[in-house]
Amino acid sequence: MGSCTSTARNTITSPVGIGSTSTSEAPQILFDDFSYSTLDEMTANGWIVRKGSGWPGVLGATFRPENVSFVDYPNQSGNRLLRMTSSTDGTSENTYQTQICHQRKYLEGTYAARVRFSDEPVSGVDGDQVVETFYTITPYEKPLDPNYSEMDNEYLPNGGWGGPQLTLYVTTWETVQIEPWNADNTSNSIQRNLAGWHTLVTQVMGGTVRYFIDGRLIAQHGGNYYPDSHMSINFNLWFIDGGLVQAEGVREYQEDIDWVFHEADTLLMPDQVNAKVNELRNASLKFQDTMLSGIQESPCDL
Fold first, then answer.
1. 99, 63 contact by CB (below 8 A)
2. Is the CB of residue 258 less than 8 Å from the CB of residue 270?
3. Which of 73, 83, 84, 235 could be stapled to 98 by a disulfide with Cβ–Cβ 3.0 to 4.6 Å?
4. If you average pLDDT over every residue of the chain, what do you get?
């Protein structure tokens, strides 16, 4: 959700206990294929569509529910996508950002989403520092809260935070203070063009967080950075404050989401995630939520 200040590099080892589960009889699963026609249908399934202003992003920008839409997947009959569209003309008052959040009830297990990143705006000049995401987070209740947890996948096609263009950051947080900025996190990154569809998988088991893209393990984090509080599942599309191009005209950026999946207390490899999602889809199951009740409603900020 915010600037990555740590660039720690971690030795990557193979996970153990693949396929291990909790002792509960029925698996706790969230799956959403985003096959909706209206926002009301989606919010009835526990999603919040953010509105108003606040962190992260351009100071004075607005999060708008109307930035969320549902479209047909090209050349796949019956498959729908959730589309986030964020726009700016270089001024804060005309900068509109997008965020959706699910309930706060997720901790250990396997998280996954299939998303389409974009390198260029669909209209207008290129160059705004835009952040395209899939992440989990606790509410920001106080500076340097020891119970804070966050895990990020953030793609920056136009750079930002002092880093190069075309960078995907994966970051795990111990805690943070927003004003003045003080971040305690660990982060890895890969630099390459990631425009197009990708499957992002995050494993949270046994004291280690592992991040995968398209089946490739790219980072693992542990120690104090391992999450210790239940989080909400989030997607957002926002602009870095101070990173807007000073040019005339409106620019629109998009990020699409095909599906999201979580299984609690279970370590799944990316191919196992894909198999489970295919099984759910083949059964014509568009949405499933067998997770235990949330600790609290997500405020859908940060």
1. yes
2. no
3. 84
4. 92
